[in-house]
TrEMBL record:
This is Guanylate-binding protein/Atlastin C-terminal domain-containing protein. GO terms for molecular function: GTP binding; GTPase activity. The keyword RNA-binding does not apply. InterPro entries: Guanylate-bd/ATL_C (IPR003191), Guanylate-bd_C_sf (IPR036543), P-loop_NTPase (IPR027417). Pfam families: GBP_C. It comes from the Eukaryota. Keywords: Membrane, Transmembrane, Transmembrane helix.
Length: 392
């Protein structure tokens, strides 16, 4: 009967008064785990005057049952010890009144609230276990990985709670609260993951965009170098850009790389043509007046005439780009300008300075060597008058 009377009342509408009643019943149920029922008949018909009636005025059966109840209470009661001193009846009544007054004022926690406080401390420890596991993660992470880590940290936290929680009636309520708090924290970690993923992918995208812009303005245009930078940038983005923002930035990345490649290919042949024309003229001057190497000058003239006459014959430079000879020139140019061992665009100035030094040294040493015969077909010099002496 007592257990049925202390059952929770259904509260589908969320009525606050019914919630309060259920809390009281839960507290009474915890405090009344060990109870003994004893029935008493009605003492007298005039209930309002019971305090004024003597035992002789009461129902004899009631008086008899009351004496039996006293004996039962006497048999199971133990003296109350306060500060090491057993209390007598009057002292115990006074102590009980003080306790009831403190409980009514909320100064002393009830058994139900003690259970809640104890479980609250466990909840805090379990939440620290969850946050400790999640804080070790190096965000950003893929969404599936973050969800997996969340489930593992949640399971560990729930395991600790199952091992340390107190009571049975408040367990489900505490479990729901713990789960709710962990879900709130998980949403926060999701937001942090999205922010860090977006920031990281944006940095990688901006870096690749800068790299593509730099490749567009190479001093010495090279398709091989552009393709190498293109692949390196794309691979770096694929490896380092992780998290929920990756799909969005992958689309932007593909569009940007596609535009950069199209623009570079469009300008590549035109820039290379102009560069080769200038290069051929420079080689003519060097072969004619600097090192005086006939074959170098002839080769430069052949290249210059081929480039100029072909475009004049077919009215445009674009038609040249489909010629097999042009493809041979492009292949040779790519092998000279860029390779895994030497990036001529990067070291062009250094190589040019070195060549000038070697050329100056070669010219100076050649002048000091009188009568030496060069294996190269050089222009004859008549500045030396040793072979053209006047006759006396």
């Amino acid at each position: 009967m007592v257990n049925e009377a202390l059952q929770r009342v259904p509260n589908d509408d969320g009525n606050k008064n019914i919630d309060q009643v259920n809390q009281i019943r839960d507290s009474l149920a915890i405090m009344g785990d060990n109870n003994t029922a004893f029935s008493l008949p009605q003492p007298h018909l005039q209930r309002t005057k019971l305090c004024e009636l003597k035992d002789s005025d009461l129902d004899p059966l009631y008086v008899e049952k009351r004496e039996q109840l006293k004996q039962l209470v006497t048999s199971i009661i133990r003296p109350k010890i306060v500060q090491g001193k057993p209390l007598n009846g009057k002292e115990f009544v006074s102590f009980l009144e003080q306790i009831l007054e403190a409980l009514n004022k909320g100064e002393i926690p009830s058994t139900g609230s003690l259970v809640e406080i104890f479980n609250k401390a466990i909840l805090e420890r379990c939440l620290k276990i969850y946050t400790g596991g999640m804080d070790r993660l190096n965000l950003p992470l893929p969404e599936t990985r973050l969800e997996k880590e969340h489930e593992e940290s949640r399971a560990e936290s729930m395991k600790v709670f199952d091992e340390q929680h107190f009571g049975h009636r408040h367990v489900q309520q505490s479990v729901n609260k713990l789960d709710e708090e962990m879900e709130k924290m998980y949403k926060s970690y999701n937001l942090a993951n999205e922010y860090k993923s977006s920031k990281l992918c944006e940095e990688l995208y901006t870096h690749c965009e800068d790299v593509m812009d730099q490749l567009q303005v190479l001093r010495l245009p090279s398709m091989a170098k552009f393709n190498a930078g293109f692949l390196q940038c794309n691979q770096s983005f694929e490896e380092k850009c992780v998290g929920p923002s990756k799909i969005k930035y992958e689309q932007r990345m593909n569009k940007m790389l596609g535009r950069s490649r199209s623009l570079f290919i469009k300008e590549y042949n035109h820039r290379l043509f102009n560069w080769l024309v200038a290069f051929s003229l420079v080689m003519v001057v060097i072969g004619r007046f600097v090192i005086k190497f006939i074959l170098l000058e002839l080769g430069a003239w052949v290249l210059f005439i081929f480039l100029e006459t072909y475009t004049r014959m077919f009215w445009s430079a674009e038609s040249l780009y489909y010629n097999p000879g042009w493809h041979f020139i492009v292949s040779a140019w790519e092998n000279i300008v860029y390779s895994p061992l030497l990036d001529l665009d990067r070291w062009a100035i250094h190589v040019g300075v070195l060549l000038l030094i070697l050329l100056a040294y070669w010219r100076c040493s050649g002048r000091r060597k009188q009568g030496s015969h060069s294996l190269l077909p050089l222009y004859n010099s008549h500045r030396d008058g040793s072979n053209h002496q006047r006759s006396d």
